[in-house]
Design brief:
- The protein is α/β, with parallel strands linked by helices and 340 residues long.
- The protein has one domain: Rossmann fold, CATH 3.40.50.1820.
- The protein is 30% helix and 16% strand.
- Strands 2-1-4-3-5-6-7-8-11-9-10 form an 11-stranded mixed sheet, sandwiched between helices.
- Keywords: Secreted, Signal.
């Protein structure tokens, strides 16, 4: 099955990515060159994702000059995925969740959209290391200037997960600084698994704690454990509840539905930290057969315990709100089994 997925995704990458890019509305694609000098940081300085200040990544220290930026506050550093741009729904949903539910958080987007388009294998995937290296250099300067690394949380979706991995890895190996938490939302599969097939994938050694949410494992997303704690909602694979069973057009909204569930789940957890309790198990089957799923339970998403380790499972609703609370631990007879 995995080999079929690999072939399928190779065809997607070579034949479809340029078509998709060409179909995006004029003015949406970044009018910037395919180089790190044209990567931007977007700092959200208002109450919605429509309020922001863009600065070149190479001038990251200008963040300290922006009204509202507080180096002593928690900082979320979000990294988007393949063919995404700053106006993408995934970014808007994640950013608004933090701005509305977690005031006092510095919310920053790493806008590498100029290097995330074109051929997946020949351009975007290979650019992840370049982007991560450049981001690590600037992050090192920010930390040296007073940004609190202990309160710095890197979150990447899909291809952005591997940019996050390279950023954290470079920061650790070159600058001797370690990111405390890195969250990978359905990290991209093609070119990264098995490790080193083309590029190195995000892994548990990149940060003190790496939590991963799998929603399209073996499809667009990583097929195996890759973090300190890996979460597998509904088994972690396509088709996630509520997603179309037939979605043959590659990279269409329907086709990406399961892959996108990862950021939808995380954004919901920012607003409701106890929405997604998850149970430790060796497999989805064993999770479903477990009569005591609350034992060892941790929350998936925003409030994930940094002592969590291994694989965790849960079930979700098919539409928002996706979180089922404690019901999500009882896929068979939840109403009769939940402990009072």
């Amino acid at each position: 099955m995995c080999s079929k997925n690999i072939v399928y995704l190779f065809l997607i990458s070579f034949c479809v990515s340029e078509i998709v890019a060409d179909s995006i509305a004029p003015g949406i694609l970044p009018d910037r060159t395919n180089r790190v000098e044209d990567i931007y940081l977007r700092y959200y300085n208002g109450q919605t994702a429509e309020d922001y200040v863009d600065i070149p990544l190479s001038q990251a220290n200008k963040l300290f000059e922006i009204k509202g930026f507080d180096q002593n506050n928690p900082t979320v550093f979000y990294i988007h995925g393949f063919i995404e741009v700053a106006q993408q729904e995934s970014i808007q949903v994640m950013v608004n969740a933090y701005l509305e539910a977690r005031p006092g958080t510095n919310v920053i987007l790493l806008d590498w959209s100029n290097m995330a388009h074109g051929s997946y294998f020949f351009n975007a995937a290979r650019n992840t290391k370049k982007v991560g290296t450049a981001a690590a250099e600037q992050l090192n300067k920010l930390v040296d200037s007073g940004l609190l690394l202990d309160k710095f949380h890197v979150i990447g979706h899909s291809l952005g997960s591997h940019v996050a991995g390279y950023t954290a890895r470079e920061l650790k190996t070159k600058y001797n600084k370690t990111i405390k938490r890195l969250t990978a939302l359905d990290p991209a599969f093609p070119a990264f698994y098995p490790d080193g097939v083309v590029m190195e994938h995000v892994n548990a050694k990149d940060a003190d704690f790496v939590d991963v949410i799998h929603t399209d494992a073996g499809g667009y997303g990583a097929p195996v454990r890759t973090g300190t704690a890996d979460f597998w909602p509904n088994g972690g694979k396509s088709i996630q509840p509520g997603c179309p069973r037939f979605a043959p057009i590659p990279l269409s909204d329907d086709n990406l539905c399961s892959h996108w569930r990862s950021w939808r789940f995380f954004a919901e957890s920012v607003r409701n930290p106890e929405a997604f309790p998850a149970s430790p198990a060796e497999s989805y089957h064993k999770f479903r057969e477990n009569p005591n799923p609350e034992e060892g339970m941790v929350y998936m998403g925003y409030s994930c315990d940094n002592k969590a380790e291994g694989s965790y499972y849960l079930t979700t609703n098919s539409q928002t709100p996706f979180g089922k609370g404690m019901d999500g631990l009882y896929p068979k007879s939840k109403s009769n089994s939940i402990k009072k």
